[in-house]
Model the fold of this input.
Amino acid sequence: MTPQWDDKSPIYLQIKTRIATMLLEGAVRAGEALPSVRQFAADYQVNPLTVSRAYQELVADEIVEVRRGLGMFVRDGAVARLLESERKRFLEEEWPATVARAESLGLDVKDLLRAIKEGK
Done:
């Protein structure tokens, strides 16, 4: 695997986002182990310290837990925590920009709802 890394964001945050996406899509479930830091680093061709930092962020966010001697495991309720934080981030960061853009284009709520119904 040779993923493309975005230069606009630190790689450890991109790793964290990839793991979060895997959880939200059901590719990894509560109670399952994440790959070891070394394995992940080898698979994705990144520095183990970078992977370790991403994993530490996931621990701090209470998404994964360390089981001493066993590795990193997805915590129960991780998906719910991720959804809650992503919804909050969307409403606080992305939605205001979307609303501002729609207003600048002269779109109102009716236009937006019609576009949703029409699948545009």
Q: What stands out?
A: The chain has a mean pLDDT of 92. The chain has five helices and two strands. The helical segments are 11-24, 37-44, 48-60, 78-104, 109-117. The longest strand covers residues 64-67.
